Amino acid sequence: MSINLRYFASLKEVAGRPEDNLTYTDTLTVHEVWKRANPDKSLPGNTLTAVNMEYVDFDFIVKDGDEVAFFPPVTGG
Amino acid sequence: MSIQIRTAAFDPYQEIQTYRNAKTGNTGALGATGIFIGTMRDFNEGAAVKGMTLEYYPGMTEKQLEKIVSEAQRQWQIIDSLLIHRVGDIFPNETIVLVAVWSSHRGDAFDASRYIMEALKSKAPFWKKELLGTGDERWVANNTNGYKSE
Fold first, then answer.
1. Taking the model in full, what pTM does it have?
2. Distance CA B103, CA B35 (A)
């Protein structure tokens, strides 16, 4: 199975890249996706996460083909 | 209803005029217009700011803005609305965001435009990186809750 990862704003700087692809065979939550893709970097506590452009919690389970995004609190307007 | 992401500077007053003039039907019912315009300051958090870059998440940002406007339509009697938000490089005195809501009565116009702005501030994926007067750059950490006094 494979998912696409997107990183925005300060999380792009933490991850060191804007996007990524992760292949896996087991069941993964969004938080576990981060740890698998960024094993040497802890996920900042105020991080927001989205799957297929909808907000989800860290314990949301991803599925094959999902787009998983990590970003800091939003600051528009 | 119109939701637009813009990469170039725009005149919010001209946008309101143009959008309003393009309407051909039901204009006799437009008794109230609620307008919010957000403009870039040249200071923030005690520092001079000479510019900023607004990043967004193409696709998700539009999707979240559509959900916010749909929720406003569900809660209030809205005849039409216009929402324009800048992205990219922005400088002081330029407009960041325009929200205009047309309705028959002021309560709906005031409350719906306020709701759209506050929801945008907390849910729409935009991120500001400031270029300070010193030449340093910094991410804006978070938006404040506009309903709470600071």
1. 0.95
2. 11
